[in-house]
Records
---
Amino acid sequence: MSGPSPASAPDAILLRTSINGDAVSVAVEPHHTLLEVLRYQLDLIGSKQGCDKGDCGACTVQIDGKPALACLTLAVHAEGRAVTTVEGLGDAHGGCHPLQDAFDRHDAAQCGFCTPGILMSADSLLRRNPRPVSRDEVREALAGNLCRCTGYTKILDAVVDASEVMHGHGSDDAKKEVAQ
Amino acid sequence: MNPFTLVRLPTLDAARERVSAEPQRRTFRAGGIDLLDRMKEGLDAPDELIELHAIAGEHGARMRGIAATEDGGWRIGALVTLGQLAGYDDLPPAYGAIKDAAGNAATPSIRNGATVGGNLLQRPRCWYFRHSDLLCLKKGGYECLAVSGDNRFNAILGGGPSFIVHPSSLGSAVVALDAKVTIAGESGLRTIPADQLFAPPTVDPTREHTLAPGEVLVSVDLPPALPGQRSAYHFAKEKQSQDWPLAEASVRCTVEGGVIQDLRVALGHVAPIPWRSKEAEDVLEGAAPSAEVFAKAAQAALSVAEPLEGNAYKVPLAQGVLRYALHFATSTPLPA
């Protein structure tokens, strides 16, 4: 899928925002979505362009910590806000987030196209609820993220497990793996 | 999506006047969820989007806030997101129907962007309307294509001539809660009963609301809760999540001396407007709450239904949804 060319029209607006903790200034056209600017101007291609109309959730990022659909968010909406994409999920040294470790342990990704969006929805849930979460809470938090491969079971297992690992109730295997 | 110019004006009047001057090529943007969807589908191609979020001052604060009013009611700004409303713990339980409706609409990510005003004023989801190659009655064509087409999700009440169902989940709740809406127009702010915001297709099949071009929905105004007021919202969907309801019901009432009073019943996603059911209200007003009387009221509510070829299933479905809402609103145990 090809993206739009970089903004050059006289209508371009200077967008000043924070992306994954970095201050970013970029010229954007008014009709470009946040997803288009992330992927085609800033080369942050973790957020996926699926349905491009709010149905699939593959483009989910966080804006000020809340999950948002980058395909239905105009880029200019990010002015002065903090955007987090899947590239910003791990630690600063390139290490994986406990959610990413749990997805690996549980084989919770198959084709992987939906995974970045699911991780961002799940991370927002775990930030709002710093404790082990229930499967029902995960179901609700991931209600907007479609996966056509896994049947969701392993995804739910992984998110619940990650929340338990992060808050000291994880399985022995998981704790061992995280410790290594 | 077509290129457009974004216009940020700091006052409500300036924004309103800008759109009023050329409503064919300018439109307002709030959350932009439905607007961008329509623009991506090629259904709309405005040259200019006027950003309601840019409105500052007293009007901007009113549009962005949820606040108790001097008369004892509550005001919900049109730019409040569905997520903010669903999570607003200070709103008294008497108004629970609108919070539940907001919290069950769409998905968490959409609720974080979609606004109360946008939810009430979004365009219909009928697949004939949404298909950019089809010219249906709602887009200026000669007939409602749902009548002879696949009409499984279309209206069972109202009698046309357009058989869309109104897409707003807040719609039935604001009607049941006897809310008003405040609108900014040429002569300042005016407040009308919420049910007058919605236009049946007999008035003009190409639109779903009564706002004049350039007018802006400013807030939803909930009246002071009646002593002992309860309310409830219930729905049925094909899928548990991320789906449009097939039927919804909102109920407001009090239960005084063992009988139901002050009852308002509204159904959603079964008619081109949020559908107030006087038939159900007539059965229930003054009756003692029970599963039997709720079943009777639900039957009465749908006795005026005229389903199309493919949606007769919505009649018993809507009856069931209404019965649940009545049980919840009156805390009457569900039958075993």
Note: The mean pLDDT of chain A is 90.
---
Amino acid sequence: MAIELLSATEIVCAHCGLPVPEGLVDSTSSLNFCCAGCHTAYGILQSHGLGQYYGFAERRESPVRASGRGYEEFDHPSFAALYVSTAADGLSRTELYLERVHCSSCVWLVERMPLLVPGVARAELDVRRSLAVVEWDLTAVPLSEIARSLDALGYPPHPFRGVARDAMRRKEDRAMLVRIGIAGAIAINVMLATLALYAGEVNGMEAQFTRFFRWVSFAVIVPAFIWPGRVFFTGAWAALRTRSLHMDLPIAIALAAGLIRGAINTITDQGPVYFDGLAVLIFALLVGRFLQQRGQRMAADAAELLHAVAPSSARVLENGARHELPTAALLPGMVLDVRAGESIAADGVVIDGRSAINAALLTGESRPVSVDEGSAVFAGTLNVESPLLVRVSAAGESSRIAKLLRQVEESARRRAPVVQLANRMAGIFVAAVLVAALLVYAITLRIAPEQALDNAIALLIVTCPCALALATPLAITVAVGRAAGRGMLIKGGDALELLAKPGTLVLDKTGTITEGRSALVSWVGPTWVQPLVLSLEDGSSHPLADGFRRAWTGLPRVPVSDVVHTAGGGMVGTADGHVVRVGSPTFVRAGLDQHRDERSSDPILAAKIDAIDRTLTPVYVAVDGVLLAAAGLGDRVREDALQSLDTLRLRGWRTIMLSGDAIDVVASVGASLGFRDDQIIGAASPEDKLAYVERLKRAGTVVMVGDGVNDAAAIAAASVGVGVHGGAEACLATADVYLTRPGLGALVELIDGAERTMRVIRRNIAFSIGYNLIGAGLAAVGMLSPLIAAILMPTSSITVVLGSWYSHTFPRSGRHTSGRTSGHSSVNTTRLERVA
Amino acid sequence: MSVIYLVLPLALVIVGAAVFAFVWSARSGQFDDMDTPAVRMLHDDAPVTPPRPS
């Protein structure tokens, strides 16, 4: 109810539909914009007659945050050599990874690029992978201009490095699909032909027709062996050469034995032909393999996107002139010009300027750190306040972030043991089947020699892991699909397996347990000062000012004049006739009237201000030379954090908070969420986090939940890495699971779903092994007639398929609606929270 | 019943045509991206290709 009241009176941005901050509302205009980025994007769309964009039900719900970069490096010859290829009719072609692509209107807009930028011939967007293929005429328009206009619309582009590998994969995928299609068509037709044979056996059929059907099914199945089925023989041959036991080996033996025996039986016109079973087997195995491979693909995709974290270009100051250079071309000793709001492209030392650096991405520190001449700064960190000149000390591969990313890749590689275990299990199964077949052959040879070979082959075919091969991938595919609809993107099936059993849950603080942005948490002082502060802060682009604006949406504004900003300090101005000084403690104290400093010596106020100083970013307020109030801005804990953590603790998970933030801050948040003292670790560098997670991992499953580059190595090293909503999109790529919903509630749902998925998998395996045992038993005693085998095989597969499909792993829901509603409610709730 | 000698090969020819169609569509990339086209077809037809720059 309160939500409706608020939104009814609210003015929303004409482009993104989010509320417009009161200071930016222009009551004379019917169109209002929440930021300059949205205004620019709106202008571009209108001037090109693309206003239709606003008719889509589903639109972006985030302000356009254009980076405003020049993208000059996109025209560099070395860039072209790396990423640009030549398409048909002399056009150039490249693939770009676009940030913040998420809905159908994004597809529409990006694919209208030819209208927006003359010279672009074609633009196609793959919305699931956020990859756009752009073809353009190099003589008509440079790539940098295309990049700039994508950026202005709110989709900052990055070069996509995996193009070559992608093309190879696409070829592989198509080949696999073709194999599945052919195997499927053959399986169905062989089954139809053999159905006639079974019917004939029951009702009687003339010998000539029986022979005809047997020959037809033989003729139809041979292509299945030559084309789709060949992969099993090549796989088995490779396994033999490397002297390892692989699933392909018994499959190949069973297929070969079945085909040869069936062929002999067809030619001699007696005994069973097995062709239906063989055809279905090939088909089912291929489908299972395809599903499995797709899951593994998504995991591998990820690491590529990591490289998008660091800016791809930098402004270099040389002989008094500034020009943009690709990051790869930076050398130690160069001087970079870094403007406010830009990321730093290389490690270096500040040689001129004073500013604050937000290193949250790298260290997790939620408070911006102030830097001045001589301070060291790192690549990937954000310059918040004012321009800096930085002398490069390490660039490219030797920068700290590059080393961190290398660690991430290494940890991701080291995760191989799970795969190896699966292969070993397969080896055991293979050995068991082969031994059983040999035993059956040896035993029946003594009792009934003429049946020995038939029985052994029947056993081989019937125990072939048809349903077993489908059991796990199917259940996981269904679960992963449903989870995606609920805002949980799961990249690998093994993540579900590991999440199903309680272990240690390590959580990052900034952005994971907390919201990851400055919000007004505490206010000490009289309320009449608030409108003065707000009116003054309205004119500031500082992130802390944003915290005030979000917290005090309902407050009136007062006229402000003579505002002076001091970088790294604060601002002073006249509001409503009072001289108001707002800013850092040192800045405000410097302006206090020494003779009238009575209120600030008030012990109660002083104590409260002290408390703010320790755990939050303090902003002091002095009015007419008297320190009257202080605000504490900090990172607010997510609403559902405590409840979710308690639920998980109840399930047996050990929870640990691992943060790069200052120990005081971490301890105060941790205590309020029920973490024990030994479960709180603060001031951990990304390297510490990695080491800590690796140490924990020796004792069992470790699930790492985080949101930034500083967590990326730990996320990759953990048994299961979980990235949360709102984190750096590109670096969350290393996570096994990415939660697109805000809050920790999704984490609880994920773990619930994982438990249920594992139950489904166990049930599937039990069913298929049950069928296999029955079949093997019948085959061993020679009672497995072809008819029973033909019924057993598909029944077991169908049980598994239905069992997977109708299981309640994750609640079903429409993919888009869930994302939208949760997005809405989160916006509204955060806006409703008021600071008392 | 001897009509089966005619009908069955005919059926196999049709299957062959279907398989060929599938192979062609898979190879021409129609199954590469299963998400975006579903969204794209909802958009109205607007002239996407601009006049080629001279």
Note: The first strand of chain A starts at residue 85 and ends at 86.
